[in-house]
Structure to design on (198 residues):
C-alpha cells in the first residue's frame, strides 16, 4: 500500500501490477520482463517504487516512476541486491548486497556506498525487514549476527561510519527492526531459545 493510501502495488507471476486501493477495476501492469520482479517498496511521495529483479541473471534494484511511466536500473555488478527500503526523505534507498553488506544508493546519482557489513538473516525472504531508517534520515538500525552466533541490533550513521551494538540478548534469528515515529526508541523481533518471535 502506498503511503498516501490511494494506490496498491503487488506481484503476480513475477511481474508487478498497480491498482487503486479503494475502487474496483483492472490493475495496470508495471513491468514487462521475463525476470522475477518483487520486494516492492513505495517512495514516501507515493509516486515511485523500488523493486528487485533477477533479469539479466543477477538480482538488482530498479526504480519505477508512475508520473513518467519510466523504469530505471539503480544497481549493477555481481549482486545479488535485495531488500530495498526508501529513506524517509525519498532521496536514498538502503539495500542488502549478497547477504553481507548494508549499502545505500543515492536515487539521483545512482551511486551506492557501503554502510555496514554483517550477517543479515533473510528468512522468510519476502517479509524480512532487518534494517530501518531513523525518521530523521541520519541513522540506520540493523539486525546482524555477531558473537557466538547471536543476532542483535546495531546502529550506524546513514552516511557511513562505525557501527555500535545497542541490544545485548542471546538472540537467534532476530530481525525486523523498526523505529518509533519520533525516533526515540527501536522495536525488533526476538526469538530467544525456542519461543516464537514477538
Amino acid at each position: 500500500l502506498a503511503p498516501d493510501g490511494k494506490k496498491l502495488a503487488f506481484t503476480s507471476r513475477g511481474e508487478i501490477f498497480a491498482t487503486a486501493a479503494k475502487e474496483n477495476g483492472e490493475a495496470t501492469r508495471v513491468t514487462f520482463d521475463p525476470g522475477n520482479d518483487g520486494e516492492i517498496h513505495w517512495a514516501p511521495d507515493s509516486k515511485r517504487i523500488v523493486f528487485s529483479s533477477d533479469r539479466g541473471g543477477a538480482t538488482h534494484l530498479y526504480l519505477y516512476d508512475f508520473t513518467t511511466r519510466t523504469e530505471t536500473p539503480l544497481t549493477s555488478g555481481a549482486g545479488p541486491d535485495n531488500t530495498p527500503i526508501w529513506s524517509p526523505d525519498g532521496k536514498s534507498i538502503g539495500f542488502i548486497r549478497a547477504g553481507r553488506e548494508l549499502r545505500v544508493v543515492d536515487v539521483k546519482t545512482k551511486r551506492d556506498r557501503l554502510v555496514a557489513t554483517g550477517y543479515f538473516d533473510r528468512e522468510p525472504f519476502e517479509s524480512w525487514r532487518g534494517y530501518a531508517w531513523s525518521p530523521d534520515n541520519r541513522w540506520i538500525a540493523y539486525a546482524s549476527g555477531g558473537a557466538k552466533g547471536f543476532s542483535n541490533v546495531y546502529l550506524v550513521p546513514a552516511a557511513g561510519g562505525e557501527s555500535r551494538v545497542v541490544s545485548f540478548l542471546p538472540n537467534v534469528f532476530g530481525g525486523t527492526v523498526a523505529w518509533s515515529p519520533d525516533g526515540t526508541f527501536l522495536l525488533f523481533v526476538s526469538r530467544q531459545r525456542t519461543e516464537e518471535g514477538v
Summary: The chain has a mean pLDDT of 88. The longest strand covers residues 139-145.
